[in-house]
Design a protein that fits this description.
This protein has about 210 residues and is of the alpha+beta class. The protein has helices at about 1-20, 25-35, 55-60, 90-95, and strands at about 110-120, 125-130, 135-140, 140-155, 160-170, 175-185, 200-210. It contains four helices and seven strands; from the N terminus they run ααααβββββββ.
């Protein structure tokens, strides 16, 4: 029994020694020879299966311009409703400028005579003179001729009376000198007045209307 165990131990030691003596190069060479002797199988290429679309609507929608889907230009346009009795606008009507309202013309009323008020600043003499148009009237050393007397509507509801007059002053041994020519205003005498050292003349009112007020 001891002899059998010794033989088994000797066989195992011999096997280990044989494996230790075998080099890695020889093992690699044997593997290369086995690979060279065997036939290499060719690589087979297989077509990938079709990938299903996530959105089923995209698959059912035809492409733009296809026979199943006409282009936008060929699609029928909605009809514009026509109203009976309405006149369609034309380019000429659309481009026509809007006419603005003309400003109102002031209403003027003419008179035949002017009633003037006159004052002598030295003697404090005050007088009222009625001057028919184109006729010469006198107050002191003044000669007055009223050329025009009228009433104008300055603004709506406001009327202003004015008179166009010529005034001369008489002096001894001298020719008459014109001292004023212009408009006198009844309600606003400060707008236009005669600048004289002795006399002051203003318009009181227009008299004897020629044109009745509208």
């Amino acid at each position: 029994m001891r002899f059998g165990a010794a033989c088994l131990m000797a066989c195992m030691a011999f096997s280990l020694a044989a494996l230790a003596q075998e080099s890695p190069d020889s093992v690699l060479q044997d593997e290369m020879e086995e690979g060279a002797s065997g036939a290499v199988k060719p690589l087979e290429l297989k077509a990938a299966p079709p990938v299903p679309l996530n959105n089923p609507v995209e698959a059912a929608t035809p492409s733009l311009g296809s026979p199943d889907r006409p282009s936008v230009m060929s699609m029928p346009q909605p009809a514009i409703p026509v109203v009976e009795g309405a006149i369609p606008a034309t380019p000429a009507d659309a481009a026509a400028p809007v006419e603005s309202e003309a400003p109102a013309v002031p209403k003027t009323e003419l008179f035949r005579s002017a009633k003037l008020r006159a004052l002598n600043k030295v003697t404090a003499r005050y007088g009222s003179v009625t001057a028919p148009l184109g006729m010469l009237v006198r107050f002191g050393n003044l000669e007055i001729i009223a050329q025009r007397c009228q009433t104008d509507e300055v603004v709506q509801g406001v009327r202003q009376q004015s008179a166009l007059v010529d005034i001369w002053e008489l002096k001894p041994n001298e020719k008459p000198a014109r001292v004023f020519h212009g408009w006198l205003f009844a309600d606003s005498p400060s707008l236009s007045s005669m600048n004289h050292a002795v006399y002051d003349v203003g318009l009181d009112q227009c008299m004897e209307s020629e044109t009745p007020p509208e």
